[in-house]
Amino acid sequence: SRICVITLAEAHPLLQSGKTIKNINYQISANCSRLQNKVSGKSKRVWLFALGAQFLTELAPLCRISSSDGEEYTIYSCIRGRLIEVNENILSNPALLQEKPSTEGYIAVVLPKFEESKSITQGLLTQKEYEEVLLRRRSSAS
Predict the structure, then answer these.
(1) What percent of the chain has pLDDT over 70?
(2) Coil, helix or strand for 15?
(3) Cα(135)–Cα(16) distance, integer angstroms
(4) Strands lying side by side in the sheet with 55-56
(5) What is the tens place of the pLDDT at every residue in 77-102?
(6) C-alpha angle 35/61/96, rounded to 5°?
(7) How many domains, in total, are found in the chain?
(8) Fewest CB within 10 angstroms: 10, 55, 76, 122, which?
(9) Does residue 71 form part of some domain?
């Protein structure tokens, strides 16, 4: 399937540092709220048609997460596609981002264009490649 679920990476500071999440905000600017994304169409549940869905680029912010120590993190789409859904459950229960980041604590669901989906998946890192990138980052930081 071409559906992409956006979550926090294992190495994200919010998952590594034991910080407490204070707030999640899908309001990107005065004129743009990801909560106002409205997907319609006959096959909405299967997401075959994403009519009315906001289009995202790789650098489009999805939300901002504030931690109790005052740090703020902007979470970006990282892929081009239509925003199918945002996870409103994390607004009332932000701890889901930390407790279940790859399941109930997801941030959003994005549907890439059909013709771009193959190149997107080919550009993804395997788990092993991801771990190697993290190792290099950690060793260059020390």
Answers:
(1) 89
(2) helix
(3) 15
(4) 4-6, 108-111, 81-86, 55-56
(5) 988 899 999 999 999 999 999 999 88
(6) 65
(7) 1
(8) 122
(9) yes
Interval 53-81: pLDDT, tens: 889 998 999 999 999 899 999 999 988 89
CA 48 to chain centre: 20
CATH number of the domain that residue 93 is part of: 2.40.50
- And the tokens for 85? 């859904």
What Cα–Cα distance (Å) separates residue 39 from each residue in 16, 52, 117? 34, 5, 20
Sign for the pseudo-dihedral over CA of 46, 52, 56, 61: negative
**Residue 141 corresponds to which amino acid?**
A
Position 28 in a domain: yes
- pLDDT at site 23: 92
Query: Is 121 a domain residue?
Result: no
Cβ(75)–Cβ(50) under 8 Å? no
Residue 19 DSSP one-character state? P
pLDDT band at 47 (very low <50, low <70, confident <90, very high): very low
Range of the domain at 104: 4-114
Give pTM, 2 decimals. Answer: 0.80
* 3 state SS of 2: coil
Residue 81's H or E segment, with its range, is: strand 81-86
